[in-house]
Amino acid sequence: MAVPFPASHSPKTRRKRLSARMKSFSLDAPDPPKQLLGIDEMTKKKSSSFTNTCFGQPNIPVGVNANKKKFVFSLRSTSLEIEDSKRRSRSQSPQISPRSKKKETDIFVSLYHFRGKEKDDMDLRPGYRVTVTNSSDPDWWKGKCGSRSGYFPAKYLLKLAKYQRVYQVTHTMNLTEIDGHGGMRLHKDQIVLGVGDPPEEEATVIHVKAANNKEAMCPAQFLSEV
Fold this sequence. Notes:
The protein is of the alpha+beta class. Among the domains are: 107-159, SH3 Domains (SH3 type barrels, Roll), CATH 2.30.30.40; 166-225, SH3 Domains (SH3 type barrels), CATH 2.30.30. It has three helices and twelve strands. It has helices at residues 11-28, 34-54, 64-92; strands spanning 107-110, 129-134, 140-145, 148-153, 157-159, 166-169, 173-176, 183-186, 191-194, 205-209, 215-219, 223-225. The model is unreliable at 96-102 (pLDDT under 50). Residues 103-162 form the SH3 domain. It is found in: Cell membrane; Cytoplasm.
């Protein structure tokens, strides 16, 4: 026959006492040390950074996004200031109208002697450089040479190309045209023009062109540059 437990030692009473003791332990237990709390916080931070790295969330320090926004804004403002300065400089720079541009004048060389008979005529000598100012009349042009100006026969001039050399013949001679199909006679004091690039210093012949558009190779010793 089983002996019954006393009321003070029954299992039900023991469970109540144990639960009461556990509650008293939890209420009376001291706070965990700060070192343990610090370790827990560091563990949480490491776990959060590891989670962010694994799942694609970059561990960006606080204030980086704000600095990036400020930097982008400063770049945009700088570019706008540069554009404004360019526009102001363009608007303030003087614009030259087409009428104010100087028209390039043609330079001619006189081929023959000319002594004027009228007061408004201008004398010419072979080799003079003349700037034509009025060529409306087909026979008589007006121009200037140095400080002088006046009228002269239009056929006495030959237009010069830029940097073209001018020679004066020192001896009368007969030459063969450059194409070999005819002859070319040059007279003393006649003006001819150099063709092509300037000849070398040691050149013995020079390619020349006369007023009648005939071309020939002339001995350099019979030419004098003017």
